[in-house]
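Q: Can I borrow your eye for a moment on a structure tokenisation matter? Would you mind producing a protein record, from residues through to fold? Write it directly below this note and I will take it from there.
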Amino acid sequence: MSLPKVSHLPPLRLLSSIHNPHLLLCSIAPPSVPRRTLSQSGYRRPGKTRDDRLPWQKIDFDFWKGVEGIKKHFKLLKQELTDPFIGPEGKPILEHMKEQNRVVWEFRGPESLAGWTVSCDKEIGGQSEVYLKLGRNDTCFLYGTLNSAPPKDGETRYSGYCTMRSKQSLASFDRKKHFDWSSFNTLHLRIRGDGRPWMINIATENYFSHQKDDLYTYFLFTRGGPYWQDVKIPFSKFFITHRGRIHDQQHPLWLDKINTIGFTLGDKADGPFQLEIDFIGVCKDYAHTEDFAYEMYKRNPTA
């Protein structure tokens, strides 16, 4: 039964009379496959003859050209493999990372403690005691007892402090040697304390003699417990103090001429204390963009 005759039958007879469902499908001619399927399209640039060669016939088997291609691709492969280890300015990434972090003081032997000095109010008649030794893990171990009872001299009203401070580094002919931290913006310490708050004091080279007691100060809060604590303090947080009093006029820390760093305890909580320091270093924190944390106002602004 041909398709035109089937289409004129009633619906019921049409369904009952169809045994082959393919009769309802239109005959679709198979797509004509071109003779040259592997060749490019028949487009030809004006002025050029048509190239009917097969693709593999157009390959130029040149040995030296192949060697140059191998060199080129192996060079690209080498660059692809080494790029993750190359930092800015073409420096190795490890060297670049070392430039962003610097350990200034670390304690790996008894000789490393020779560059530090400790003091307390016992030197002026107080009763506090402070000691410095090398810890079991080759760390700086500062310990002692804080006593805020003033000496009975009839003059001193307040007492109770313990401090540790680095000695002034000297160059040849006993010249002062300064630390240049201008490439960094954060102080990095690894410590383990007993929960007491400390003061970090940084001394810089001053231009006038009356500034010799000026220190840049900030707080160090220890957690206590057996775990080490990594502390990062931006240099923009440090403020100027003079013999324990905060200056009215503040300005950022001068990082190009750092002399010493120290730690002071004076929280008036009498009793034993301890502070363990693994290292003291500086680092570059790109997430910190603050120049100075304290906004200054003119005391007598002119109208």
In short: Residues 63-82 form the longest helix (20 residues).
